[in-house]
Amino acid sequence: MPVNCPHCQKEVPLVISKERFDEVNKKAQDLATENGVLQRDASKAASLESELAKTKQTHEIDIALLGAGFTDELDRAFAKLAHERLPAPAEGEKPTVPAWVQSWAADPSQIPGPLRGAYKGAPQETPAAAAPAAPAAPAPAPGAPPPKTTAGAAPASTGAPASLQPGGLREIRLSQGLGAAKEHVAAALAALPDPRGR
Asked: How far apart are CA 171 and CA 178, in angstroms?
């Protein structure tokens, strides 16, 4: 729509009317508002995706630990902490918790001591297998003094605290309660190597 110039009274062909200017300006403001809403939604979606990824990772870890027989929450917490303290390998990255737990089937010596009793793939020691049967003592001769026995004496110490023996944590929890087990877990964790070299 042409408009006359107020100074020279010539017709100016490409002038925008006030109505058109207001219409375009309002549309620009509406688009800016809509853009702000979309950016907030995109930010929320990104945080939800991050939370979902963390939840999936935690779920995979819990499934792997539960599948390995660690139904007790304390055992799973100890396994996660033991994994965090694994030293970084010279090449590549540290294995994920599920991969680490799966590797125990091939090499049971990698299982942290306090978890060996709870690991369902670990060979369980039976009383007969743990201590070989002693040969039978010959019958004493008539009139000879009775042989000395160790009945009633305290068993010999294996040198390691009970919490570091296979199944030790479970036995402590069952016999002394959860409060006592926390101290043994702390002692067992202190025995693990610190990957940071401290």
From this structure: 11
